[in-house]
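Project standup — Tuesday

K.O.: blocked on the structure for the chain from last sprint. Re-posting the sequence here as requested.
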Amino acid sequence: MNRRWTTRILAEYTHELSAVVPDAALCKSAGDVLIDLIGCAAAGYAAPAAQAARESVRKIYAEGPARIWFTSD
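H.V.: unblocked you, prediction finished:
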């Protein structure tokens, strides 16, 4: 089966975008969103739904190139 991984799709999409120079406000907002994302992922790590999601990902996408956050997988 020829799979297209999400990381590959996103990489191709961003590569095709025209060059845009972001201003300081955009960079700050992007940084804030990134910090929020990482904080939420870390805070929810032990939640039952997150544990179930990790188990599903391990079974379905074990061969994929991406890693599961906060694990050695």
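K.O.: great, moving the ticket to review. The mean pLDDT is 89. Residues 22-63 form one domain.
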